[in-house]
Amino acid sequence: MKTYKSQGEDETYAIGKSFAAGLSRGDIIALDGDLGCGKTAFVKGVAEFFGCSDEVSSPTFTLVNQYDGDITLYHFDVYRLENPSIEECDWMDDYLFGDGICLIEWADNISAVLPDSTVRVRISKTAEDENTRIITIENSES
Length: 142
Ligand SMILES: Nc1ncnc2c1ncn2[C@@H]1O[C@H](COP(=O)(O)OP(=O)(O)OP(=O)(O)O)[C@@H](O)[C@H]1O
Ligand SMILES: [Mg+2]
Hints:
Number of strands: 7
Helix content: 10-25%
Distance between the termini: 6 Å
Bound molecules: adenosine-5'-triphosphate, magnesium ion
Largest sheet: 7 strands, mixed
CATH class: Alpha Beta
CATH topology: Rossmann fold
Strand content: 25-35%
Shape: globular
Strand order of the largest sheet: 1-7-6-2-5-4-3
CATH superfamily: P-loop containing nucleotide triphosphate hydrolases
């Protein structure tokens, strides 16, 4: 597990961008942490790394956004899916087991349908000050 400290949105973006260098097709990244902790900021850094020019924003109502770049990214926000049945998540399989990279905000809501190989990114606010975040990145092997 790797742990980073971010002291602003730009730092979270940069951590996402350098994390992206280790990604390849088929990877699934779960992003969890409170409202406004910086999950989307992290995804923006990943999208920058892959040269995606589309605007990155949380797909809270559409559930998934697609960004075309060197590798296609699928950006999910499953905030509104609380404890869905496995069948309610069937539509995600084509993305999860396709050859793009999936980044899923609020992934804890659908943890039952995510494979063990999912990379877990957790972002937490701290009591230190309002712009500090602790980011942990856990690979299944580490
Ligand atoms: N260290 C930090 N890293 C990321 N964002 C920060 C940081 N400090 C302050 N912020 C602010 O917190 C907010 C993070 O917003 P962002 O949309 O990335 O969060 P989110 O986790 O995706 O939220 P949501 O759950 O609503 O989708 C921004 O307004 C940003 O400016
Ligand atoms: Mg978001």
